[in-house]
Amino acid sequence: MTGEHSLNEKQRPDLSGETSGLGLVTVFTGNGKGKTSAALGVVLRAAGHGLRVHIIYFMKGDFPYGERQALSRLDNVDISHFGHETFVDPANVRPEEIAEARRGLEKAREVLRSGDYDVVVLDEINVAVAWKLLDLESVLELLRNRPPDVELLLTGRYAVTELMEAADLVTEMVNIKHPYDRGILSRKGIDY
Ligand code: ATP
Ligand code: MG
What we know:
- 28% of the residues are buried.
- The protein has six helices and six strands; from the N terminus they run βαβαβαβααβαβ.
- The protein has a six-stranded parallel β-sheet, sandwiched between helices.
- By secondary structure, it is of the alpha/beta class.
- The chain has helices at 35-48, 66-71, 95-114, 125-130, 136-144, 161-166; strands spanning 25-29, 53-58, 77-82, 119-123, 151-155, 169-172.
- The N and C termini lie far apart (36 Å).
- The protein is globular.
């Protein structure tokens, strides 16, 4: 059975005390809302159990996202962002946007190498690859060379097949309905 788990197949959680089994790769993709929110949900759990988390935002500037303000109060969660406040136009990617994305990837390598983190989120990296701000091979190489016990989460629409193949868990958010389609724009506290 692919993509489904029956209830009796569910494993009991390990309540022995130690967090264990880290080191898997998750991809949250698709056109529906909830990819970044889902990754932040994992961050919340990880942080609650004392795991050390680093979130790297790609293609995002210095914008007052609610999660950044909340998570900056936690001393086991670090955040960095690479990009500008303006949206990237996939038909006309600017050199400085590519440069920022590359700096973000270099930061990701550094964060993984450091041994200082248990969970690393690469937010919107799927889009950065799909729109060729980053080359796929350099991201696959990052996945291959990661320390075996660091949990990695990749978010963003348009995840390419190779990234999904390299992952252990892939969820596609499907857009059934979105208030944006009837003119309701991003809401503070809900969408950012
Ligand atoms: P969120 O950050 O709310 O979890 P997301 O990560 O799934 O959303 P992105 O692809 O990163 O969504 O899109 C960024 C912004 O676009 C978010 O503010 C989100 O609410 C909004 N958005 C997401 N899906 C849709 C959609 N299907 N139509 C319009 N806007 C959307
Ligand atoms: Mg997102």
